[in-house]
Amino acid sequence: MIAYLARRFLYTLPIMLGVALVCFALVHLAPGDPLVSILPADASAELQAQLLVLYGFDRSYPEQFFIWVIRALQGDLGTSIASGRAVSTEVMKAVGNTLMLASVATLIGFFFGCLFGFVAGYFRDSWADKAASFLSVVGVSVPHYWLGMVLVIVFAAQLNWLPATGAGPGGSADWAFDWAHIRHLILPAITMSVIPMGIIARTIRALVADILAQEFVVGLRAKGLTDFGVFLHVVKNVAPTALAVMGLQLGYLLGGSILIETVFSWPGTGFLLNSAIFQRDLPLLQGTILVLAMFFVLLNLLVDVVQSALDPRITRT
Amino acid sequence: MNIAVDSTKIPAPVFERSPGYWSSVWRRFRRDRVAMAAASVVVGLLLLALLGPWIVPADPYQSSMLNRLKPIGTPGFPLGTDELGRDMLSRLMLGTRLSLFLGITPVLAAFVIGTCLGLLAGYAGGPVNTVIMRTIDVFYAFPSVLLAIALSGALGAGIFNSLLSLTIVFVPPIARVAESVTTQVRNRDFVEAARASGAHAFTIVRVHVLGNVLGPIFVYATSLIAVSMILASGLSFLGLGVKPPEPEWGLMLNTLRTAIYTQPWIAALPGVMIFITSISFNTLSDGLRSAMDVKQ
Q1: Do B296 and A206 touch (CB under 8 A)?
Q2: Is B243 inside any structural domain?
């Protein structure tokens, strides 16, 4: 097991390096001077040169990449050009908010996805299956930013039950576990939960139908096991894949929250990315993407490890 | 003795052509009513995109300060007007053009590029495979929405940049499918036989491998169009795609966000179009998958 873990981790290292390289390349892909957003239009050539040296843009690309990676490993992602604050502080604060939103959304999605998936798989081709399958297609097809708008229209603008934007009263960005804050979480979390709901429901439906058709289920029934006992066997067989899909979905939501965060003005990484893009704040853009992508890579690693621990059939090679 | 045989007396051998693969796929697909409905919606949308400029009831660019945000059902404006007083129905109809173009083109481009890369990696094997597939793994390590937004954010707003970044997002998944199918087919006996009889590698790929690879990728690509529609409109929604005043559903959704308290249902209309398109492509893809019997 330990050998497997070590190998799996070693395999992740080149991926991480590649991810860092892509994040680094993004900045140099960007047209125009990276300093254009802070330089005054009439900046002198000396000032320009000074800033280039200050931000390290005067060195060669491999040198810059190397310095950037070493610093990132020490937790230093540079300074935001627009705000002048450390990128790592800004990102970490935003990651907390996004993680909160994405985890709640994943849990809601997982619960309903399992419910619909089991119902559809158990009662194949019944009306319940058709309804559950329809809901899961809707879940993967609905443009979630639009769903967010519709929920705002219904529950905030028309019924006035829930707040439309922000993460707390008065636009505060600090999270607390009280009703005043949780109210703000409800609409974005429901909006976000729709995608994992659809995907988990589809996966589980296929798995359940597959497992129920296997001979060991017939055997268990022939031995007189109750329906509930059979159900527990099905759950045990579905669990590794369902958990793996859930883990990956959490990663997708973390990285893909920008559209929903924009609709709800949720102060997370998506919001940060949005402002980084439109203020052309390249260190912030680079840092946020790096952190989110690393989260995703590590989550993938975790999912693989948990899955192989749960399911002994997965060969540890 | 006359041994000449009257050739007309011999019954002509009956060659009953067994129905081909595609005709049996079509027969199965035709029976699937849901998939047929989805297919007709897709055809309708494509027609709308083609004919848009000639069938719109009003000028979609004509703004009017007096007619701003008229409600649905106003005489002359069946679906109301937007925040600049332009006819919503005409803008939604003409918007089909850009929205479908932005959603479908990246998948088509990724289909071509990804299939080529996957075929090359799968057929060549060895170090070529390692280089291509490990590079693809790196792009796979990004959540797709993040990669799309990061790329178009870095490249800057615009139609071409949005197409480019979405293509980069969709190449890795298509290449993976192509590679795995190619690797399976490559070791089959008929490929071995073709190689033994001296067929050129290119011929083998074209004749034997491609035919087996295209089906699964095609099914997969139609489901990617659903994702691509949502992402492409999402980029415009963020202000990273189409620029005003062009009608595009995502951009319309963005500019109408200010109207959610005054004319909420007009503000939601462009999203309905994105939703219909995306769900039709997803349903179409499901129908194709079961008609072509492709494993998920």
Answers
A1: yes
A2: yes
